[in-house]
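Write out the 3D structure for:
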Amino acid sequence: MKTNIFITFIFIFFSINTLGQTNYTISGYVQEDESGENLIGVSIYDKETLKGTVTNQYGFYSLTLEEGTYNITYSFIGLESLTKKIILNKNTRINVSLQNNTIITKEVLVTGEKLDKNVTSSNMSQVKIEVSNIKQLPVILGEVDVLKSAQLLPGITSNGEGSSGLYVRGGGPDQNLILLDEAVVYNASHLFGFFSVFNADAIKDINIIKGGMPAEYGGRLSSVLDITMKDGNNKKYQADGGIGLLSSRLTLQGPVQKDKSSFIISGRRTYIDVLSKPFLNKIDPETGEPNAFSGSGYYFYDLTTKINYRISDKDRLFLSGYFGRDVFNFANSDNGFAIEIPWGNATGSLRWNHLFNDKLFMNTSVIFSDYRFEFNLGQSDFEFKIFSGINDWNTKVDFLYQPNQRHTIKFGTNYTYHEFTPGNATGKAGDVEFAPDEIFRQYSNEGALYFSDDFELSDDLKINAGLRYSSFQHRGRINIFNYIKNDLSLNSDNYRNIEPRFSLRYRLNTTSSVKASYTENYQYIHLASTSSVSLPTDLWVPSSTVIEPKFAKQYAIGYFKNFKDNMYETSLEAYYKEMTNLIEYKEGYLPEDNTNTSSDNSFTFGNGDSYGI
């Protein structure tokens, strides 16, 4: 009954503003002139009425206005604003390139106009971090770090100095949805948490959502860290790099076909292992032999790459990927004892943008995510290996529909196939080998449908109402067809839930507003840890008959105020969050054997709440 009322409510407002004068739509893409990069969050508005919109994460915008003559301004911080006089008597496609606002003088001041989005939007608890600002912050050992910059924001803390894990409004590190070009990153840190896996040279946009999570995001309780990679310079070839105390990096980018396709490839590697060799390979003055620990060392490396192709003004393709590994090794040359511990992530995203018309935009994605950990030990004729991990295949379709400047609708669906390897061991002693009859794995299906409507009832009142239907099915090799049919004959565990999302903004005057939000979230996969510090040995486990999904409700209210023509933005927010079915290993438990489903009984569960201002 509640669902029917909600849907009726949405469709009533779907019809608002459809009557009256003839409306036409201006749409297109906005890019940076120098590099050809699509720009996210560009303000497009009429100078007289201040009616406007912003570009999405692919640089697309759609602005519907009544028939007439307008001075449309395109504005982005750090770039020169552009104003076009448009006689709007038909639907118009306008692609725009914004130029750098550069002045050659002794002192350079870069300015830009922007709308008062802090006050007028219905978004709460959201922050966009400029990569250029991150690079200006003082950093540890010369390494620019995205996650450490996020820890400077209110409501976000770390577990301690050097840790890159995020604790958002009382939630744990596994309650954050971390996305790199829409691919989930399960372990976002190098060097046991001292550095993040994200290379700032390859990143274009960082959006952090701490509360009031929109309906298009799900699967986590606390926050979203949505990171978009650069597309690559489609105008000219370019090389950038840097040398730090611990690592060096190199980025190459350029056009594959000028103004039509481009690539970017960016790599990093530490040389801790190289710098430590002179100390570890010291020659014993008495024996003349190298010391016993000549093979010891640690290093990490990662490679980020992306290629895109503009098929036409309506169709674009993007292929992006990430691969990174940490490797720790230890060797004693006296007795042949050696340990090697590699771990890391791999992701891949293939996306197709299609523009049906000036108001309807679609993105279709096929995504792969993988995280794995290995522990290899050997001595003489003895070998022992432990390995664990999780990998996902994910497909999603998202639609953006903008009937007019007061109304933005998003809807879509996604399906994820999870494969968990919670812990397997193999070994060899002489001629005797031991291994499980079959590598133990667990399989799960996770899906969602969502709908959200962001609409203005008046100049003062704006509402964002959304609904997300999520589902999870676990245990056994369940294919997608049985999942859709809800076939329960395979001894599977099934969860179906509805997650409402709601936020509103009431404008007090032209410079201030109050906002409120309410969200419900379910989380179906869990990170089981034996310590307060996130380690690569921590295991991801699915919900089951024993392990129920985590659930959270969050209430928030805030006051937003801008000063001096939006030069300064301020906000004050208060929140309260309730969490249930939180999971940890039982006290004293060591996850040495997770090779059967009885490991579900190794956990303890509890509830929690958090609040702050």
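The two ends are 35 Å apart (CA to CA).
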